[in-house]
Amino acid sequence: MATLHSPRFITSFKTHPTTSYWRPLHLHIRRRSSAPMASATDAAESPAAAANSESTSDVLVQYVVLRRDLIDTWPLGSVVTQGCHASVAAIWSHKDDPHTIDYCSPDNLDSMHKVTLEVKGEVQLKNLSEKLTSNNIAHKLWIEQPENYPTCLASRPYPKSVVSPFFKKLKLCK
After folding, report:
1. What pTM was computed for the model?
2. How far is the C-alpha of 29 from the C-alpha of 11, rounded, in Å?
3. What is the DSSP string of the chain?
4. Most buried residue, 20, 32, 63, 138, by CB count within 10 Å?
């Protein structure tokens, strides 16, 4: 059974002397391992470190695409929830894929990469889903129920170089 580790960075919060709100006053860093940290020169000399840097140069990324027409008309929380549903469904549907396993590994939980983009509306979202399907890019088109219309989609995690060309014409969601 997998265990989640606590965050690497712990911030202590105390009431600021001149205000009534809470704010961080200092930062504590806790290492997860008792082994000494490797220096930059150690990493440069290690062949394993060189191989690791090559494999991390093409970062794993998950794309989430929301509909702008819904962003403009629905409450923000509802639209964010749709994206969360699609993201989790895409990951769960492909939980046995090696990229998904790596993306969700305990070592990577604190450094996941997601890109949230937008399309104008339902037609563009369906067209994108068809384009991804025809190019064998695994994704989840989230269909809101009981209304039965698509609200967003999310890809499973892929190396950025493999999947980014399919999303390059879309705008960042702002």
Report:
1. 0.68
2. 9
3. ---PPPPSEEEEEEE-TTSSSEEEEEEEE--S-SSPPPPHHHHHH-HHHHHHHHHHSS-EEEEEEEEHHHHHHS-HHHHHHHHHHHHHHHHHHTTTSHHHHHHTSTTTGGG--EEEEEESSHHHHHHHHHHHHHTT--EEEEEETTTTEEEEEEEPPEEHHHHGGGTTTSEEP-
4. 63
Which amino acid makes up residue 149?
Answer: Y
CA distance 16 to 30: 24
pLDDT tens per residue across span 88-144: 999 999 999 999 999 999 999 999 999 999 999 999 999 999 999 999 999 999 999
Dmax (CA) for the chain in angstroms is: 60
